[in-house]
Each structure stands twice: as C-alpha cells, then as structure tokens.
Design brief:
Blueprint (H helix, E strand, L loop, with lengths): L9 H20 L10 H15 L7 H7 L4
C-alpha cells in the first residue's frame, strides 16, 4: 500500500474508507442480538463468517450481485 493518501489509487482509498466506516458502525451499534440463544448450526455459521471478515475477506460487491440476479 502507498505511503500517503496522495499516492493511493481511488480503489485503495475507497477500500480504506469503507473499512473505517464498517469498523465505526460495529463500534457504535454493537450487536443487538448479543445474549440471545442461537441454534448450534447458526452459531457455527456466524463464527465462520466472523473469522472470514477478521481475515480480511469481504462479501460480494452489491452491484455484481444485483447484476447476477438480473436486478439492474
């Protein structure tokens, strides 16, 4: 990654801004379902998803999904 903002590409800057916004929203909103009971299979699925996000994986781009589903 570039050393300063002036050296970032548009995509790199969008990625950084998106990550910061996502992190801040998680911090502010927290988990509204915290403390509720989950079925074992749902809990495992959520833990796998949480690990993936922690490791930097991101979901599919909304526009690509919409296009794939013929919604655009």
């Amino acid at each position: 990654m570039a050393a300063n903002v002036g050296q970032l590409s548009t995509d790199e800057l969008r990625e950084i801004i998106g990550s910061v916004i996502e992190e801040k929203l998680k911090e502010i909103l927290g988990d509204p379902d915290e403390g509720l009971d989950l079925k074992a299979n749902i809990r495992e699925r959520l833990l796998l998803q949480q690990r993936a996000v922690t490791e930097g994986e991101r979901g599919d781009d909304l526009n690509e999904v919409a296009e794939r589903l013929g919604l655009t």
